[in-house]
Write a structure and sequence with these properties.
Blueprint: H1 3-8, E1 12-25, E2 34-47, E3 51-55, H2 62-69, E4 77-82, E5 92-93, H3 99-108, E6 109-112, H4 126-136, H5 143-156, H6 173-185, E7 191-195, H7 203-220, E8 223-228, H8 231-237, E9 240-245, E10 248-254, H9 255-260, H10 265-272, H11 313-317, E11 323-324, E12 330-331, H12 336-342
Parallel strand pairs: 3-8, 3-9, 6-7, 7-8
Antiparallel strand pairs: 1-2, 1-4, 4-5, 9-10, 10-12, 11-12
Length: 344
């Protein structure tokens, strides 16, 4: 890590505290609606210039979290502090802002959506798609200026000039995602939330988009929250990782520490799911069994215990607390001390 990165990491740009989000469900007109938490006690921070990886299977609450961070969904409780300037201690609680104020904050916090096939307006040309946010927020008064800015961004993200007047359906998936990235940069944001930006793309294109994001992070000094179900991608892009399961954080820490010694069986299973060559026929690894339970029927005790190879009786009855070990490496597992000693 170079000196610039160390300096930038001194301050926190986003600080999430005790975030909860619940939904109501009513199976019958004769019964009262029941409440179910899709996010429970979410706590993490993001430093200036840092990439935070958020990983977990489908249904773990990753996209809900992303939408809460920009108040597209309003959490039921908790705080999301945003610090606009690195050397300023003043922080803004995003959840307390009204519609006009949150509109200003959204210029600083932009989302790259998962599906490039549905996230672009099919009736607009791609130079119009990228220039629209600039025009809406009145960053330039001259029409030629905001179109020039849009075309500069499209060029930077790898779109050929011959395609500027094309519609989204005339582009490949990778090209559409590049347009989505260019649009997210149009307002000069400080934070990018990339919600599974490569999952809908071919493997050969995924690497190009990931490398593009890393390049843009250096150019614009961006802080990035990178959401994915693929730990191999998360390992490559992230400085820190939070692992989510059924709306809860089950492990968090530096990328190197988590891959060197995961402290939660779920994290271990995700790491073991990464394809890798093995020449040892006797090598044994813990893999995930079953599927993620429904949020309407969450298991008692540790939410992961029905799928855990190490589960004990305590795991079935008691909810584990999030415990922090060395180097701010945290996990919520009753067996974390035992697993730590085993070198899990």
């Amino acid at each position: 890590m170079n000196f610039l990165k160390i300096y930038m990491n001194k301050n926190t740009i986003l600080d999430v505290k005790n975030l909860y989000k619940k939904i109501e469900s009513n199976y019958s007109i004769f019964s009262k609606p029941k409440q179910y938490y899709i996010l429970s006690n979410i706590n993490f921070d993001l430093k200036f210039g840092e990439t935070l990886g958020v990983v977990g299977e489908s249904g773990s609450g990753k996209t809900t979290l992303a939408k809460c961070l920009v108040k597209l969904i309003t959490p039921d409780s908790g705080k999301i502090y945003y610090q606009q300037k690195r050397n300023n201690s003043d922080k803004i609680n995003i959840l307390e802002l009204n519609r006009n104020s949150i509109s200003e904050i959204r210029k600083d916090i932009q989302i790259i959506f998962q599906d490039p096939f549905t996230s672009l307006n099919p009736k607009m040309r791609i130079n119009q798609i990228v220039s629209h946010p600039i025009k809406f927020h009145k960053l330039f008064k001259n029409k030629n200026d905001f179109f020039e800015k849009a075309e500069d961004l499209l060029t930077l993200t790898g779109i050929n000039k011959d395609l500027f007047d094309n519609y989204p359906h005339q582009l490949s998936g990778g090209q559409r995602q590049r347009v989505g990235i260019a649009r997210s940069l149009a307002l000069n944001p400080k934070i990018l939330i990339a919600d599974e930006p490569v999952s809908a793309l071919d493997v050969s294109i995924q690497a190009q988009i990931i490398n593009l994001l890393k390049k843009l992070q250096t150019i614009y000094n961006l802080s990035i929250i990178f959401i994915s179900h693929d730990l191999s991608v998360i390992k490559y892009v992230s400085d820190k990782i939070i692992v989510m399961y059924l709306g809860e954080i089950v492990e968090a820490g530096n990328t190197v520490d988590i891959f060197k010694k995961p402290l939660h069986p779920y994290t271990e299973a995700l790491i073991n799911s990464i394809p890798k060559p093995s020449f040892n026929k006797n090598e044994k690894s813990f893999s995930i069994i079953g599927e993620v339970p429904s949020i309407y029927e969450k298991p008692k005790g540790c939410k992961f215990h029905p799928r855990c190879f190490y589960a004990e009786q305590k795991c079935k009855n008691d909810i584990p607390e999030l415990i922090t070990f060395n180097n701010n490496h945290s996990t919520s597992c009753h067996l974390s001390n035992k697993l730590k000693l085993k070198g899990l």
